[in-house]
Amino acid sequence: METGAAATGSRRLLRRLRDIMAGSGTAQERLNQIVKIIAADMVAEVCSCYVMRAGEVLELFATEGLRPEAVHRTRLRVGEGLVGVIAATARPLALADAQSHPDFAYRPETGEEIYHSLMGVPVLRGGRVLGVLVVQNRTQRNYTEDEIEALQTIAMVLAELAASGDLVSPVELQPSNGIGLLPTRLDGIKLNAGLALGVAVLHEPRVVIRQVVAEDPQTEQLRLSTAIDAMQSAIDDLLARSDIAAGGEHRDILETYRMFAADRGWLQRMTDAVRSGLTAEAAVQKIQDETRARMSKVSDPYLRERLADLEDLASRLQQHLAGRHFAAEAALPAEFILIARSMGPAELLDYDRRRLKGLVLEEGSPTAHVAVVARALDIPVIGRVKEVLEKVEAGDLIIVDADEQQVFVRPGEDIQQAANARIEARLGQRLTYAALRDLPAETRCGQRVSLQLNAGLLLDLPYLDETGAEGVGLFRTELLFMMRHDFPSVGQQSSTYRRVLEHAGERPVTFRTLDIGGDKMLPYMSETKDENPAMGWRAIRIALDRPAMLRQQLRALIRAAADRRLRVMFPMVAEIAEFDAARAVLDLELERTAARGGALPAKVEVGVMFEVPALLWELPQLLPKLDFLSVGTNDLVQFLYAADRGNPRLAERYDPLSLPVLRLLAEVTRACAAAKVSLTICGEMAGQPLDAMALLGVGFRALSMAPASIGPVKAMIRSLDMGPLETLIEAIATLPPRALRGKLRDFARDHGVAV
Ligand code: PEP
Ligand code: MG
């Protein structure tokens, strides 16, 4: 925190700068005056201002102390020299001995060799670097945190000048040259599947800050705290809303959001910025800019999410300061697509769900909270669409094609028609599948198939009713852990598992113990860098090496399933000994619960996921120990073909509908039948109608899949006759290479099977 004297000094300086900004003279003349004043105020021999020009080049625009002839001559690329590094990282830099820094780039025309220490800060606006402000001293001066903070505040004032278009032409300030108003197609990544068409609404048009320097800091302080209070109570109101209060991840996420809104460090930084002489809006903007700049450099997805939450809160705060009502109350088009840089879950919920058809984000990741909420609301979302905010104007017609990971901006007639036709067809198909809901999954020849759901969040559970699935065949517990900031306690875990079981009622739920590691690291666990994460320290391997974690999870499951049926499944078991060890932990927890007088589950069923091929040859010894086996083809196929399932280059290379995969699976079905152990399959294959047909052909009768697959797979089953299919499957060894998929497709067509 700043001292009182420092804050007074800072305010005085800011007022002088404001007077210069408002005074006469060209922008260049004003900038020249400003660097002089800063140098004097900071007791520095040099103060220079570099401005970003087209092509990511920083040009020396004004200096006090360096040679005047270097002005407009000295240019550095972003990343070049210390000034370039400050721009590239968007972070301040303070060095007592700048010349010995490896990135120091000597420019003889500046005459800077006599200055040893350097402190520089980025000039930020809207998360973009518009320039760099630097002071230098002859001595090896150690700049203090307060001095860095003060220079950052001054940079806020300079940002106004740099963004005004008076120093460099506004065209150069554009992140990329405008692309006019032609139809455009933009690429991104699918955050939630679906297709939608609507009019673009820009989420929170930027608040224009009219005044940076405060007239009266006390008034600004009051405005800031009033806005903070208003924002906090608006979040409370949102939490109290009946549709959210009921719970699920919506609620958990919003609770976290509320916690962030009360983050003392964040609030303090804004308060300090007001104390230093900024208006409340400028203070919020300063902290928001810094957050945004930090965010662009952070690669850790968890940290990015947290920074994104803070950014969203800052936007909300700006709206409160502007006295603006939220978009939910504004007149919105009947069907609109929301366009945003990033967005928090609370903000998404501000909008009228009936009108909101799709969401396009410049940032965002599949695990982002907003994506989770959008999934629950069934809104297609595309993220990481570069510069979408620059390329889309409010009112543009937009098509969000999340399945193809594309956004069409101002599409032509033909594309609109095609999209509308697809939307209609999907709607029709949904209705057809919905009509199958209460019909049995039974082949034409009378074979019953059990269709179950893959789930991982409380938000997925309503699909049990919607699809008519028999139960949850795979509950991926790790998703609940990945959504959190810390490791959940036994109590927290068991209350979540209990909610799952309560929702499922009589329908069985198979809980898979934590399958973390590989690509699913928990943000709060120290990261391990495996050379080959898919084959590394993951799932049951971590569980057995960190038995406390497994113990706690099993204890929570036992508690949650008191007097009910408990089904537990261990992932990635590669040998019997691993199962035995995990089973022993479960038995011990059951014993301990009983010894404590706790209620036990009415029935405990234990199973293993068959994902590692080596286990095939241990099945005869393993199966008698199990209640069920579940095949995870996603991992099984990647290990069988030695092909990383997440590598896009290999995605199409090996077809799981192949002789080796089907033969292996047929052998598993035979082993389970011989041992009378129930068998399911829960990899993605089970949810693809054609693949599922082949799985029935090799003997599977229980399939677990994503909710959207239940309808299409049931339609396939109800149109299938097993006899001819089994004949075809028996003959697969005689087919030429890579012919199986085509053959199965022909079979489906010839026999009227809906795939
Ligand atoms: C599988 O590997 O097939 C599976 C269902 O597990 P996950 O996709 O969660 O690894
Ligand atoms: Mg798996």
Note the topology.
Layout: H1 4-22, H2 27-41, E1 46-53, E2 57-64, E3 75-77, H3 81-89, E4 93-95, E5 117-125, E6 128-137, H4 145-163, H5 170-173, E7 184-187, E8 189-192, E9 195-202, H6 217-240, H7 242-245, H8 249-261, H9 264-275, H10 280-297, H11 301-321, E10 336-340, H12 345-350, E11 356-361, H13 369-377, E12 381-383, H14 388-391, E13 397-401, E14 406-409, H15 413-436, E15 450-455, H16 462-467, E16 472-476, H17 478-482, H18 490-504, E17 509-512, H19 540-545, H20 547-560, E18 565-570, H21 576-595, E19 603-610, H22 619-622, E20 628-631, H23 633-640, H24 659-675, E21 678-681, H25 689-697, E22 702-705, H26 707-718, H27 722-730, H28 740-750
Parallel strand pairs: 9-10, 10-11, 11-12, 15-16, 15-22, 16-17, 17-18, 18-19, 19-20, 20-21
Antiparallel strand pairs: 1-2, 1-6, 2-3, 4-5, 5-6, 7-14, 8-12, 9-13, 13-14
Helix pairs in contact: 1-2, 1-4, 6-8, 6-9, 6-11, 9-10, 10-11, 15-26, 18-20, 20-21, 25-26, 25-27, 25-28
Tell me about this structure.
This protein is an alpha/beta fold. The protein folds into four domains: 4-169, Beta-Lactamase (2-Layer Sandwich); 186-204 and 328-427, 3-Layer(bba) Sandwich (Glucose Oxidase, domain 1), CATH 3.50.30.10; 217-321, PtsI, HPr-binding domain (Enzyme I, Chain A, domain 2); 446-750, TIM Barrel (Alpha-Beta Barrel), CATH 3.20.20.60. It is built from 28 helices and 22 strands. The N and C termini lie far apart (65 Å). The site of magnesium ion has 5 residues, from helix 23.
Number of strands: 22
Structure class: alpha/beta
Count of spatially separate domains: 4
Small-molecule binders:
phosphoenolpyruvate, magnesium ion
State the fourth-level CATH superfamily of the largest domain. Answer: Phosphoenolpyruvate-binding domains
CATH architecture of the largest domain: Alpha-Beta Barrel
Number of helices: 28
- Terminal Cα span: 65 Å
Q: Give the fraction of residues assigned to helices.
A: 40-55%
Uncertain spans:
176-180
| Cα gyration radius (Å) | 31 Å
